[in-house]
User: Which sequence fits this backbone?
């Protein structure tokens, strides 16, 4: 399959050291000669430190693969639609909430079914001294509860909330991810994934389901499904579901720091050694 050029649009706004980008503000452009559309709200070209985040609307029957996926770490989350994901020589049918990890050395390709496929894709090159895992897991879902962080109190800069959200470690060093992790925060009504920072990692994560709030720098900001948060190293961020009552629903986020932050795994009593 021909790799797709994924240079950001020149109209993509600068990130600064932190920014929340509403899904309504994504700048989509069609790929040459195709119906598939690409937006790149986060990338080094607009100010990120390590990570690139694409949002791809793959047209029915078309395929998409980042041009440098073999040389980079890639994770992908299906936001809408049905299709097929291929990592190297392995393929699997995917639908909303399914997640894919393509380690360095393995090309990533996504093919849309009859109704199209909307996918968020995180990318980063391996930093010096890191090597791919020996047995990485390429396919999972956001709802994989095998390995979790519960009761996280943050990193001490902000007083933590007592009702604390749970985070699923979907792709992490323990299942072979060598740099680009994928975590899923489940904020039930009234719960918070407490405010924290990553000293050496930048973070891009999305609101996947529901409505809630993301903390950035010094305040809580209302967000909805599809919106993106970017935080540079050292910038405070978090997520919470302030809604309670009989009509309140969970608020789900996903993404992760790049490179992965060992402090999160230590908080869960886990090693950050790559499998």
Assistant:
């Amino acid at each position: 399959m021909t790799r797709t050029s994924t240079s950001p649009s020149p109209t993509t706004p600068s990130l600064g050291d932190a920014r929340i980008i509403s899904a309504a503000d994504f700048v989509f452009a069609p790929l040459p000669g195709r119906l598939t559309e690409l937006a790149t709200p986060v990338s080094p070209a607009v100010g990120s430190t390590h990570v690139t985040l694409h949002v791809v609307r793959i047209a029915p029957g078309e395929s998409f693969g980042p041009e440098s996926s073999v040389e980079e770490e890639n994770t992908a989350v299906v936001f809408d639609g049905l299709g097929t994901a291929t990592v190297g020589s392995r393929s699997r049918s995917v639908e909303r909430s399914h997640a894919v990890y393509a380690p360095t050395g393995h090309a990533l390709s996504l093919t849309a079914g009859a109704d199209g496929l909307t996918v968020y894709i995180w990318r980063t090159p391996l930093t010096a001294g890191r090597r791919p895992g020996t047995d990485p897991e390429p396919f999972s879902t956001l709802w994989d509860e095998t390995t979790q962080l519960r009761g996280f109190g943050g990193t001490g800069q902000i007083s933590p909330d007592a009702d604390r959200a749970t985070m699923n470690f979907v792709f992490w060093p323990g299942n072979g991810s060598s740099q680009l992790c994928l975590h899923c925060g489940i904020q039930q009504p009234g719960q918070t994934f407490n405010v924290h920072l990553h000293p050496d990692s930048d973070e891009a994560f999305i609101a996947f389901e529901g409505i809630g709030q993301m903390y950035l720098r010094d305040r809580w900001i209302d967000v909805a499904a599809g919106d993106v948060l970017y935080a540079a190293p050292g910038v405070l961020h978090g997520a919470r579901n302030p809604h309670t009552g009989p009509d309140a629903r969970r608020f789900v986020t996903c993404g992760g720091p790049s490179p992965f932050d060992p402090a999160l795994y230590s908080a869960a009593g886990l090693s950050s050694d790559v499998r």
In short: The first strand starts at residue 18 and ends at 21. The two ends are 30 Å apart (CA to CA). The first helix runs from residue 262 to 267. The chain has one helix and 20 strands.
